[in-house]
Every structure is written in structure tokens, then in C-alpha cells.
Amino acid sequence: MHRLFPASSARIRRSELTWVGTITPFPLSRTYRVRLRYKLTGSPEVEVLEPLLQKRGSDNPPHLYPGKKLCLYLPRIGEWNKTMMLSQTIIPWTSEWLLNYEVWLATGEWSGGGLHPR
User: How many helices (H) and strands (E) does the chain have?
Assistant: First the structure.
């Protein structure tokens, strides 16, 4: 991941990868600082560190798990598994989520599809 995102940082402690990097989903978009955490025994979790995610009026952004973790895929149907590279799946999906978030802030419509987490 460092090769693709040279300004990022990564560490592994107690079998958990933590990656922090910046993503700009579109040339006119803001730049977001995100953190990815992943343990081999679990699923990747991504959260936006900066800027903080905003509400639209009184509505929280859609497709968030508790703790403001991004809902990027459906674990139950196998959209992601441990054989897939984080740099080719989770990071691009994070960029796509952020672009859909920006559209939602402007229009109130979530254009990313998917199902809301329960």
C-alpha cells in the first residue's frame, strides 16, 4: 500500500494492520484522511479522521456502522474476502464511498446503492 500511497503510514501490532492515508475521490473533491484497521480474524474497518463527516440537516450520512465506520461492502454475501488485496478493494471502495458522500451532502440522495447496515 505504501508504494501506491507514499505519503501514508502503516504499522502492524498484535496482528492488526493500521494504515493511515489521504484520499481525494475526485479532482474537485476535498482530501480526506482515513484510517484502515484490519485483523486477519476480522473484517477491514475504515473511518474518516479528517475532515469530520457532516450531517445533512439532522440526517447522519447513510451507510455507516456504529463508531462511524464506513459501510463499504456486504460481508454476508462475500463481496470481500481475505484473499483480496486491500489496496485494490477496500481503498478504492473508500474513495467511491467518499464521492457518494459528497453527492449526498449536496443533493440529499445516496447514489452509491447498497443496503443500509442494521
Answer: 1, 6
CA 18 → CA 14, 44, 46, 98, 107, distances in Å? 11, 10, 10, 19, 33
Asked if 114 and 74 touch (Cβ cutoff 8 Å), the reply is yes
**pLDDT confidence bin for 12, thresholds 50/70/90:** very high
Q: Domain extents for the chain?
A: 9-104
Nearest 5 degrees, angle CA 112-CA 6-CA 64? Answer: 25
Residues 48-71 have a mean pLDDT of: 95
Question: Residues 109, 103: contact at Cβ < 8 Å?
Answer: yes
pTM of the predicted protein model:
0.93
Strands (E), 24-86: 32-39, 45-50, 64-65, 69-70
Per-residue pLDDT averaged across 96-110, rounded? 97
- Residue-level length of the chain: 118
